[in-house]
Structure formats: C-alpha cells, structure tokens
Amino acid sequence: MSRGVVRPSAAARRAGPGTAPVGAVRAVALALAVVLAATLLAGCWDRREIERLAIVAGIGLDLQPDGSLLLVAQVVKPALVRTQGQAGMGSPRAVSLASSTGPTVAAATRALCQVAGRRPFWGHARILVVGEELARAGLADVMDWFFRQREPRPRTRVLVARGRAADLLAAESELEKLPAVALDNVLELQSATTLAPDTTLHRFVRDLTTPGKDPLVAAAAVVSRTAQAGFPGMEGRPPEAQEPAAEKEGEERRFDVRGSAVFRGDRLVGWMDEVETRATLWVAGAGRRATVVVPGPAGSGQGSTVEVLRAAPKVKIHEEGGRLVLTVSLECRAVLSEELRGPDVTVRGALEDVERRLERVLAADIAAAFRKARSLRADPFGLGFTLCTRYPKLWEKYQDFWPDALASAEVRISVKARIVRTGLVLKAPR
Amino acid sequence: MRRLLGRLSARRGRRAAAGSPGPDGLPRPLAEKLEENLKVLRDLFGSAPDLIVRRFRPGVAPDVEAALVYLDGMVDDTVLHQHVLVPLLREDPAALGRRPRRAELARRASERLVAAGNVSEVSDLDKAWDELLAGRAVVLFDGCPVGLTAAVKGWATRSVEDPGTESVIRGSREGFTEDLLTNITLLRRRVRDPRLHVEFLTLGRRTKTKVALVHLHGVSSPYVLAEARRRLRRVDLDSVLESGYIEQYIEDAPYSPFATVGNSEKPDVVAGKLLEGRVAIMVDGTPFALLVPYLFIESLQSAEDYYSRPFFVSLLRLFRVIAFTLAILLPALYVAVASYHQELLPSALAITLAGTREGTPFPAVFEAMVMGVVFEVLREAGVRLPRPVGQAVTIVGALVLGESAVQAGLIGSLMVMVVALTGLATFAVPALVDIVVMLRVAFTLIAGVLGFYGIILGLALLTAHAAAVTSFGVPYLWPFTPLSASGLLDTFIRAPLWVMRRRPVRLHPRPDVRRGPRPRVRRRAGRRGGTR
Description:
Order of helices and strands of chain A: HHEEHEHEEHHEHHHHEEEHEEEHHHHE
Shape of chain B: elongated
Largest sheet of chain B: 5 strands, antiparallel
Mean pLDDT of chain B: 86
Helix content of chain B: 40-55%
Distance between the termini of chain A: 85 Å
Structural class of chain B: alpha+beta
Number of helices of chain B: 16
Largest interface: A-B, 42 and 50 residues
Strand order of the largest sheet of chain B: 1-2-4-5-3
Shape of chain A: globular
Mean pLDDT of chain A: 85
Oligomer: heterodimer
C-alpha cells in the first residue's frame, strides 16, 4: 500500500456531476485533434483491400529474342479456388496467366497492372521459374528486384525451366488448384527424395555471392500428361526433357521436376540428372533423405532398396606435389526399405554385404557428379568455399582459377554406409 | 469561484449524510398539541391516502387524545395490532402503576406497554416522518412533546433467489435481494465472526437510501476502508436508486473504460472478497453489492474457480484470457489483414480470404463496423425483450440476416464467422462486456486506418492507461504490475488453495496466513486394496 492517498479526478467531482472540468475538456479536445489529424492525414496510406489484389502464386521470367524480359504471373482467381470440386483437368482453371514485357523486372511488373487490372501482390508467390534462355544469359540482374522490394519473399523457391518459363507455368496439376503450389510442394518434398535441389531465392543469391560456390537449381520440364515419372537407377539414365514442339495440339501438359540446372556464377552452364544432383547435394551437405536402389550380384535377380536417412560429408584438401587433392568422404546411415529375393538379413554378413554394395553405388554416383561438374567448370559442391574458410592459404593461390583447379584436382572418394534398421520383415518372400 | 462552489457542495453533502434535515432544512420539534403535529404530517405527505392516522384514547389514560400514525403497506398489520394497538387500548391505568403525567406518556408507554422489540422515542417532526418512511409506526399523545416509534415494518420483499447475472454450476444458489437487512444477514450467515463490521450511512437527499459499508475488521486494509468512508461521505445525490449511482460517484477513473468498482449479486462472492480484505458497499433497494478495490484480474475470475479443482480452472482462466483478447481484437485483426497486411497470412488462408471477399462492395473496416453494430443491436434486442421473443430475434437476426447478407454478396462469409466468434468470446468474459464492446469498436476503427501499426499503438496506449489506473490505492493491474509473485498464483492459473496461503498482499497489508497446508494423506504400506 505504497500509495494510500488516491486522486480520483477530484477536480471532476468538485465541479459536480455533468460538467467536466475545463482542463479536462481542453486536454480531451487536444488529444482528439491530434489523433484525428494523425489518423486521417496519414492513415489508410497503404490500404489495399485483399479482394482488389491480384495474388500471384508463381512468377515466370523469360528472355525475349529482342533482349527484353517476359514476365509471366500465375494469378490466383480466389473465387474459383474456393469452389468445391475436382482440381485440374476439365474444370475451369483457378489461375490465369498474365504476362507483360519490359526491359527490367520492375518495368515488367508495372506493365502487368495494365493486363491484370488489379494490383499484383507478390507476397504469396511460391515459385520463381526462370526460362533456360534467361538462365544462360545470367540471373544476377533480375535478382535485384526480388530483394529490393518488400513484397517478394526470399523463401520463394526457384526453378529453371527446360525451355520457356511461360510454358511451365501454363502446365496443369492434377491435385492442386494452383499449379505453382504443386511445383512448390514438389520442391518441398525433396527433403524425402533428394532428386532435385530445393533452392530458394535466398539460397540462390547466397550461393551466388559466396566465393567458391555455384548455385544449383531444380530443373523442370513440361511433358505430356501421360508421361511416366521414372525413377533413376536400375534401368539407367532418366529421359531427357521432351521438346515442347513434339507435343500434340491441345494435349494436357504437366510438369516434371527432375535433376538440376548447374550454374557457373549466375549463368546456366549445363544440366545434371537426378543421380548426379543427389550426389552433389550430399557432398554439399544439403542432401536429406533419399531412396537408393542397390543391385545385387549380377544375374542373381537380387537387389535391395535402401533409404538413406542422413549423409554427412567430410572434405579434406591438401596439395600433393603441386597438385590439389580432394578427399571426400561420406558417412551415411540408411534403413532397408525393400528387398528383392534378397539376402536373409538375419544371416551374419548379409547386411554388411548390402552396405558394401551401397557404398559402391554411392561412390560411383559421386564420381559421376564430379565428372559432370568438372566438365562444366562449375563448383556446385561448394568445395571452393571449404577451401576458402578452412585453408585460406591454398584458396589465395587457387581462387583466381578455381573452376580449372577443381577440374584438374585429384578426387578421392570414400563412402561409409551403415544400415541401421531392417524393417519388420526378416526374409523377403520368394 | 469553482473551488468555492465545490467546497460548498461538499459541506452540504456532509450534512446530508450526517443529520436528517427537514424539507426546508431546519429541524422542527414536536408540538404539544396533537392536532398541530398531525396537520404538519398530513401536509407534508400531501394528504396521501396511505398515510393512516388512527385516533384513539389509550386505556391507561382515557382522557388523553392519541394517534397511531403509519404508512399503509409498509407495516405488518398483525404485529401492529397485537403488539402496539392492543396494549395501548386495552390496558387499564393499573398497568402503569400510577397515573402518568401527560408529558411522560410516551416514555411510560414504551417502558410498560408496547411489546415491539425496537421502540424509541422521537421528539422532532422530521425524525417522525423519517421513521414513518422507514416503515415504523409513530404514536403521538396530545400534550406530550415526545412521540413513540415502534418497528413494525413488514413490506413485501422478494425472497432469496437464484441470482440472475452470475449463474454457477457449482456453488451457492443464493442471491442478494433488494432488502439491505436480508442481504447483511446472508453475509453474516457465511462469515460468523463478530468482527464483520457493518456501518450504516444514509445517502440521497430525497430517497434517504440506507447504505452499508461492510468489512472484516482486522482483515480489511484500514487505508482502503478510510478511503471508502471518505468517498461515501462526499457523495451528494438527491437519489440513490441503485448501487450504480454510488459507484459512479466513488470510482477512481470515471473517464476510463475500465471499471474500478466491482459488483456482485452473490453473498458467497462478497464473503470471499471480504475475506480477501476488500470492502463491500451495500445499498438498500438493489441486490448488487459494490466491492472495492476492484482490480482487472478480478474480471477474469469467477466464484466457481475456487470451488472446483485447480487444474481445469487454470485452463479455464487461460481460455478466458484468450476469449478476452479475441473479443477485443478479432475484428480489428481481420480488418488489418484484409486491408493492409495480406502477406502475414499463410498463402492458402490469404487466397480463401480473398475468395470470400470477392465482389463485396465495402471495404473491410466498413463491413466490420456494420456487422458489429448489427450484432450489438441484436444483443440489445435480445436482452430487453421478453425471453421467448428474444430468442426469435436472435434466430432471425443471426441466421437469416447473416446468411442472406452473404448470399447477396454484401459481406464476406468470413466476416460473419469473425462476428459470431467475437460475440461468443465476449460472452465468455461477462464481467468485461462493457469494456470489450467499447474497445472492440475503437480497435476496429484504428485497424481500419492504421492496420497492425494502429493495433499495436492502441494496445500500448491501453496498457499504459491501465497501468496508471488505481482502485482505492491499489494499482489496477496488480499483480502484473507492480509484479507480485504470490499474487500471480491467482491469475492465469489458479493455484491449489493450500498454496495460496496468504491473502493478497496488496489488499491486506498485515502478514496473515489464512489457510494451513493440506494434511498429508498417507497410504498405508503393505496393505493392498482390501477393505476390512
């Protein structure tokens, strides 16, 4: 009870009920004036009703033959998203494509208003699709707008279209009403498959500006709706992207995210398939869970499929007789997810046998990834960055011609795999 | 000049509370002559038909003219007849031993004749009509300047019933009535302690309303008590029809949205508050007792909280906090998100929101305000109308109006949900309904103008204001600010009773243990499950 005496607006009471004291009246009037002035003069400044926005779910950027940019926005039609019923083919599309051109991104976004009739809202853009042409020409210039503006978000995922970005954004999705969301989900699912890099705008620019690291971006193609999504491994390499021109007229198209686009700096220099991408991501430390098919002894018809839970890379770099030697070792833990007429895992040594085979498969994948990256003179592994941070002396020596140094370095690969769980079945049925 | 007027009015107030002035402000002694006194009384009451004057000659002094005066309906006829009129009429002079002198008649009659418990003498007219209005019978004798009053009151009162405003699932079902003495009895039955002190005051120059200041001596804070007494004495009103009149005159912050005086209709709640060290102000003619000091946290507490087991109650407290927040902020948040901060929603929700608002003609803030007004109108209509009609209003209003407004594309369907949820949340904190409705409007408007920035600004101002308010010397936001660890035990959580062993320190300055620890329940080892 520190304050025993209370001052209950004594002045107010003294003046009797009904009459507020003059001081209070003036204070209230002043406060009201200030509040009204502040709100009415400055208020509603940025007011924009949500129903008057064109919510953009996906952004596409293409390079026009004349050198200008083509901006394609997948704009949501909210009322159609809400309606019940089947998504995808047949029903009216819940998105519309609006496109505009301009010399710069900002200019193109302004031009988009003329087409859309609503103010485009970029805050909910889930993906940015970059056309192959533009990617080859370099992305550094178009990235600026995405970070300088406050609406677009750095967590927007990036894809490179094999072909034109506009075509990819026009592709349908069976399940999602918004194709951009489907594309976004595919990349999000890479934490379970590691078949394509899950690169956000933020990561792209971070890799771009990091010395000794080149961005790796998921590649997507437009394919026929009936085309199968194949898993790489036993039957060999995945099919190359089909030429859009080969499509029949009026056929439904869907997208197919597989492999990755390899950048050198901000320029696209080549493609990696899923297996190379996966190995690259593991070496870069960005790989998550992945399913790997391990063939059994030739002719036995046996084979195991394992799910790699985590793969921890370790990179050591040293010089041997003036030549750079990179020792890449990968330690991974996996679970057995499927066996084909496989060994009885209760038999001693059977599991170890699968582990050794897995190590050989992974080592071969990593070697393939290195072959591809070295042939493209790119470093999507970030080995240069490792060199820069851990061996600064060596980096000083090699930084000016790092891609070539990487290409001519000796790479020693060692993989250590351990299968930690075998699942609920002891012996595959035969 | 203002100060002088103020002082004058204050002085007048003090006298109004202390004495009982006549209509012209001057006390008038009883005259010797009966006729004169009766005439004054009749004139005073404007020949009211319920003013009964029964002339008689007392049995003890048959030569003296006497009159029994009372207000019909305010006295118990049976008691009046058997214990006042009959003895006065029937007893013969021998009853008094010796024949009394006229001037002594009143005193002798009260000593020997009148068989009522509460009998007193009255020597001035103003006192006499005062007593009449309090339901007492007045006996006047010719030639005697002193009258006699007897308590024979017996007007119709409502019986003790289930309180309408604070219904409980568990706990006492008794509620206060309009009769002050009944109410005090209800309290005394719960707190059988002679230190339950009751002070009577009369407030209201015309209504002469009896007001009781109730506190538990030794538990209540002397500061609070003195302050309450001081403020009550300064109340200068011609009428006190409900405790709300007094509340508005004694509250700390009359211009604040927050109430600094609490009220309750339930004797067990008032008893609980008294035991915490609070002071109750009870007013004749209303079942609502005022309770001071009143802190913010009390509006989130309910009597039942202490009757139920602590864990579920703590969860309920949390829900009430959420409900309070929602009730104040939900429409404002909706407006801010729909008009300013579309990027803050998850994409799917933003698209859904945009879909529901597709084609609606009004901006979100206008929509929210209109729906808010519609809701309040519905509520008001439902409250004031008789119950069966009230339900019809609610159904028509809520279902038909909401549904067709959405169908017609006038408002978004999400807005209807927001309004409905807000309404429900409001009813989850009944003690805060007034505050919530006012603040909700304010926040919706400011969100419509400034978005989240405005909401945060408003919250900051509101918190600063609430932190500055005190109620009878106790900071309104106690125990949050100033922080009190022991006080926090009865806020968002309700600790077990044996943990809250001390009374709230801010209300009760002396250290005092009110509860012992919980007796240990020992499980006997070795003996398993068997009943003997």
